[in-house]
Amino acid sequence: KKPKEKRTPHPKLPSIADRPAPAADRSGFGHWEMDLIVGKAGTRSVLLTLTERKTRRELIFKLPNRKAATIRGIFDKLERKMGKLLFRDVFRTITTDNGSEFLQYEELRRSIYGGARFAVFYCHSYAAWEKGTNENHNRMIRRWFPKGTDFGKITHKKVAAVERWMNNYPRRILGWLTPLEAEALARAA
Known about the structure:
Blueprint: H1 21-24, E1 31-38, E2 46-52, E3 58-63, H2 68-82, H3 84-90, E4 93-96, H4 105-109, E5 119-122, H5 132-141, H6 156-167, H7 179-188
Parallel strand pairs: 1-4, 4-5
Antiparallel strand pairs: 1-2, 2-3
């Protein structure tokens, strides 16, 4: 019998195993996990969630679809809004899964100012626990938007309210600081 190989659909993309130590051990600020929350079957709108590994800061974006270009557009807007230097300080690495919407590696990394805007690392196939902080946050978001929710009917204001709640919720893992308080301390250090 031929030994069964572990499925790795895109072995040429950077693996989570290659992340720098500050991203892997949560010692540095600016290392994020990214995922999508999909809504009701047959609908197109989704939520893009970004979770900072050290501070547990959450960013939630309502998107009209799950296309790679739409996701890149969010980072383009953030980069324009924050400016090149601040953006690169806040977003150093992104860890994501092998979803087709995240696989346009070069385009996702390309800065609107030229060069690379951040490093992207991909989890192993079928290993959602490798970005467990984001998965845990997605479960918290499901308190407001249970499975079967049509995100097309959810307002941006409601999504912003959930994001605000998550970032002002004290966490035991942070010594009972909120993610916003933990981020302020991490950025001051």
